[in-house]
Amino acid sequence: MTEYERSHTMPASPEHVFDQAANVEQMGDWLPEALHVHAEELPAVTVHEDRSDEDTSALFRAQPDQMRLEWGTREQGSYTGWLQVAGIGSGASEVTVHLSFFEDSHDPGEKAVGDALDSSLRRLEEQVRLRVDNAAG
User: Fold this and answer.
1) 12-22 pLDDT, tens per residue?
2) 3-state SS string over the chain?
3) How much is the pTM?
């Protein structure tokens, strides 16, 4: 098993960050560009991966009371992940994303995963910033 984790500080309340991250319909705005999530009847989702051009049955659960998202493959059990939002005071949040790959064939490698996590967290921050600015404006 291979695990990866990244954290990123965002200048927004944990509620705003969590609400944006948990919105299945807008996940494509911040997930790695090669992944596309299509909601079925939650917690069931389908994830399309451009790299392999495959659809994978997955589960997605949002736990608002814990500000936590969890996901993973359904049939294969090849990967799981979670995203945790924590308030750090002064209206800021820390977002941590953790991925676990149980099969080497599904692990894109440390550099690819690290780059994707960093990019996704920056894109999530931008989506949160747009949402907060639009709400204030």
Assistant:
1) 999 999 999 99
2) CEEEEEEEEECCCHHHHHHHHHCHHHHHHCCCCCEEEEECCCCEEEEEECCCCEEEEEEEEEEHHHCEEEEEECCCCCEEEEEEEEEEECCEEEEEEEEEECCHHHCCCHHHHHHHHHHHHHHHHHHHHHHHHHHHC
3) 0.90
